[in-house]
Amino acid sequence: xxxxxxxxxxxxxxxxxxxxxxxxxxxxxxxxxxxxxxxxxxxxxxxxxxxxxxxxxxxxxxxxxxxxxxxxxxxxxxxxxxxxxx
Length: 86
What we know:
Order of helices and strands: HHHH
Distance between the termini: 35 Å
Shape: globular
Number of helices: 4
Strand content: under 5%
Oligomer: single chain
Number of domains: 1
Helix content: over 70%
């Protein structure tokens, strides 16, 4: 991936997370996130076999703590130690 595309993707992701965080309810944000996850899986099914998709999901699941720790506070500028999300 080129540097320009990577920079655009980082900006898009940051904007999307901020948009989701500013929804009127947690349920709204979670429904939108679920739709995005479904769309990603639909795109994967175009070129990948089920086993490959399961492997990707395993890697994603394993990276949740790292994503939570490193990415979200920087993108949202939120102190998660003092915030309840659910």
